[in-house]
Design a protein that fits this description.
The protein has 19 helices and 40 strands. The chain is α+β, with helices and mostly antiparallel strands. It is elongated and about 130 Å long. It starts with a strand and ends in a 13-residue tail after the last strand.
Length: about 800
């Protein structure tokens, strides 16, 4: 947001210096990004008078001029075609810096004639426009007058950085109001327009959806004479980087920057019919905008249309076909309020950045629209002539202003500043707040005020954050305990473990697009982001895998076909007691190993995801957990599983569902896991005691068992039954073979398990091994119904490990 110092002083009566104004703006939260004085570089250049110009004796195209300057008479050799006797122009003394070229003038001799300084052109001064010689100053310009005074460009330009909530300060008047509230001057009252509507409007307005346009005011102004705007208006716009176009257009630009009130004028002769409609765009509509670009519109965008075509993209940019030009004689003035969210989405979708969009996105003062309509009408009548119709109105301004609880004690308890009640109410009153009992009524230009904390912020920024007392921390005791909780320590260690296994850690946004959220089971509207950065970041994520899949898709389109990613972050679900859960997830895609001479590369599979899951669980001290096949819908139903501790699911892993890969446009295989770390009970650690290392001198032995089981029996249930037989003697049990086919009954399968036995006090005898084997067989039969395969013996393997 740019404005000039003189523009600010049109609304603010103040004797403050530029430095004081700049410092106060930043203190108020209107951060000053830059201060520029465009006339400063031109101040060394002054008006001079050519007393005599005669032909150079040694050059046909040069003249020797005797020039009267503020430093006395000088002899200057000049090659400009318009250098002549009697001309008043601009003199550059020796030692001055020419802005356009960066050249420093030095005494010179040109074709044998001494030249002291030079007479300059507008091009050399960096001035806009076409230049065919040296500057021609008015005949009455006094000798010695600076070029900045001559051109009237000695005004200081201030640029501030507005936060998204301060739409009221997108106009100079709002900035002046904040400065006045802080005690840096007095706010001047806006003039009250006196208008006489002489005829009814020939154009009516209809709003199809008031959520898109809650309030619309318009009026016809006929008999106008469009042309160049007056010098003061052109200079004001040029100072902030805008190009003057015509009086009608310049007036609308002026109001955007002066009162943060975007306006638009339609050429009445280019409107078909007698009605304007504010409605949602249709998919097949297009608009040639004022920037000469053609835009294809989509549903959800707001347009202003007549009975034949779209005339303007509401709140963003007008259309070229209905714009005003120098032949315009009758206009329709539009002053409206549009939905900020729709404006933001439209501008983002079409990549249009305009001054109108900038202000509508931040919210405009709807209550002031009637007054601003009259002020704009009055300026049009003063500068362009004509007569105004009665207003046509659709919708209405907000019925009530926002009311928030007023608790003065919050300034102390929440803000930490000791401010008297009288000063608190004084500051808020100067900012436009009113008080009703225990409530503060926010002014209509502050839609960002929603709670008591906002009132505290207003008081502190106007009072000055330097009023907050400095508190000295007393370091009288040393903190003996660790500031990192056991959970935080293990949580970080789990990520380091995954990183050590070759996974790259990602840090994604906590929100994703709606389509991805629905695919991962998120349909609760409470997790929709109220003001999303974009449509791709509109919903809080229900799974870290959604973020990792999006990251993998971006990488895969760039040629990275094999990836191993991990992330520690928060997911959101209404099904849990805590809506937010910390989670760790991994994602592997493509090849698990590189191609080698002996064999080709191996693709990732569900067991890679299982290994990642076990790494995290082991870091959290989980030594055993039940495995089940009931996984979320985004996993492949036959190639995934979950781990449970008791009745709580603590992790899921496996291949991702083909429909999910299609949604993300990924080529498989893709496997991943999610570990819900907050559901895992922390290991119980008593002090720093370590378990005693026990080295046994006895050789462990292994025995193989082959069981015939029903298809529905999970291998994990057999392993679990074996482990529970002799916990001290059985140190390992793992399945190494699964068989179906010839010689096997239909609906049956053979599962082979290797069991490791570790003697504790002496070497096992054959009878002891046989007794343990029989217990294993009995336990498996009892718990799973599986029988030892006929012809097999528990003593059939003499392998040792």
């Amino acid at each position: 947001m740019k404005f000039t110092l003189s523009w600010l002083k049109k609304h603010l009566e103040t004797t403050a210096t530029l430095e004081e104004i700049s410092a106060r703006l930043t203190a108020l939260g209107l951060e000053v990004e830059g201060i520029e004085n465009p006339g400063e570089a031109l101040s060394p250049f002054t008006v001079c008078h050519i007393i005599e110009a005669k032909q150079h004796p040694n050059a046909d195209r040069l003249k020797v001029c005797e020039v009267e300057t503020k430093f006395g008479r000088k002899q200057i050799v000049c090659g400009a075609p318009n250098a002549r006797t009697g001309l008043k122009t601009v003199f550059a003394p020796e030692g001055s810096l020419i802005p356009a070229t960066g050249m420093v003038l030095k005494p010179s001799t040109i074709r044998g004639i001494d030249s002291c300084g030079m007479m300059v052109s507008g091009q050399e001064m960096g001035l806009p426009g076409e230049h065919k010689g040296i500057i021609e100053a008015p005949a009455d310009a006094p000798i010695g007058q600076s070029l900045t005074e001559l051109l009237g460009i000695n005004d200081v330009v201030i640029e501030i950085n507005l936060t998204p909530n301060r739409g009221d300060c997108a106009g100079v008047y709002g900035i002046a109001r904040d400065l006045a509230a802080s005690g840096l001057g007095t706010l001047k009252t806006l003039p009250t327009p006196t208008l006489h509507a002489t005829f009814p409007s020939s154009v009516s307005v209809r709003v199809e959806d008031e959520t898109l346009c809650p309030y619309f005011i318009g009026r016809v102004i006929r008999g106008v004479k469009n042309g160049p705007s007056p010098k003061w208006l052109q200079e004001a716009l040029k100072a902030i980087g805008l190009r003057p176009i015509s009086a009608l257009v310049d007036i609308t630009n002026y109001f955007s920057f002066d009162l943060a009130r975007p306006l638009h004028v339609f050429d009445l002769s280019k409107i078909h019919g007698s009605e304007l409609v504010v409605r949602a765009a249709k998919d097949d509509e297009t608009l040639v905008a004022l920037n000469d670009q053609t835009y294809s519109l989509t549903k959800g965008m707001t347009v202003i249309a007549d009975n034949q075509r779209v005339l303007a993209l509401a709140g963003v940019m007008g259309g070229k076909d209905s714009g005003c030009n120098m032949e315009t004689t009758d206009v329709f003035l539009e002053v409206a309020q549009f939905d900020p969210m729709t404006i933001a989405k439209t501008g983002r979708a079409l990549s249009i950045t305009s001054d109108a969009r900038y202000r509508f996105e931040r919210g405009i003062d709807a209550a002031a629209m009637p007054r601003y309509t009259d002020l704009a009408t009055q300026m049009i009548l003063e500068l362009c002539g004509g007569e105004a119709s009665q207003c046509v109105i659709a919708g209405a301004p907000p019925a009530q202003r926002k009311r928030v609880p007023f608790k003065p004690e919050y300034v102390k308890t929440l803000g930490g500043a000791d401010v008297s009640l009288e000063e608190i109410t004084g500051i808020l009153t100067r900012l436009g707040f009113e008080f009703e009992s225990t409530q503060a009524v926010a002014p209509s230009w502050r839609p960002d005020i929603v709670g008591s904390a906002d009132l505290v912020e207003e008081v502190l920024r106007v009072k000055g954050y330097d009023c907050l007392p400095v508190a000295q921390l007393e370091l009288t005791t040393i903190v003996a305990t660790s500031v990192v909780s056991p959970f935080q320590r293990i949580y970080s260690q789990a990520i380091r473990t995954l990183a050590s296994q070759g996974l790259m850690e990602c840090h994604n946004f906590s929100f994703i697009c709606n389509a991805h959220a629905l695919a991962f089971g998120m349909s609760d509207p409470q997790f929709a982001v109220i003001n999303p950065l974009s449509d791709d970041l509109a919903v809080m994520r229900p799974s870290l895998l959604a973020s990792l899949l999006a990251a993998a898709a971006r990488n895969q389109t760039r040629g990275f076909t094999s990836l191993a990613l991990c992330e520690a972050g928060t997911i959101f679900s209404a099904k849990e007691k805590n809506l937010e859960q910390r989670t760790i997830a991994t994602l592997r895609i493509g090849d698990a190993t590189v191609r080698q001479v002996q064999k080709g590369a191996r693709s990732v599979d569900a067991f890679d995801a299982k290994a990642d899951t076990l790494s995290v669980l082991e870091t959290f001290g989980v030594s055993s957990a039940q495995i089940i096949s009931d996984t979320p819908s985004y996993f492949h139903p036959g190639r995934s599983a979950c781990y449970k501790i008791g009745q709580t699911v603590v992790a899921c892993f496996g291949e991702l569902h083909p429909d999910i890969l299609k949604l993300f446009d990924l080529k498989g295989p893709v496997v991943g896991c999610e570990v819900y770390v907050e559901k895992i009970p922390l290991p119980k650690v008593k002090g720093h005691a370590r378990t005693t290392l026990k080295l046994l001198p006895f050789q462990p032995i292994s025995r193989d068992f082959a069981f015939i089981a029903n298809e529905s029996v999970a291998a994990e249930s057999i392993i679990k039954a074996i482990r529970n037989v002799e916990r001290t003697l059985i140190t390992d049990a793992r399945m190494f073979d699964e068989y179906r086919g010839k010689g096997m009954e239909e609906g049956k399968k053979s599962l082979a398990v290797c069991v490791t036995l570790q003697p504790q006090e002496k070497t096992f005898t054959d009878n002891e091994i046989e007794a343990i084997s029989q217990k294993i067989i009995a336990a498996v039969q009892k718990n799973t119904g599986a029988l030892l395969r006929s012809g097999e013996s528990a003593l059939s393997s003499d392998k040792t490990v």
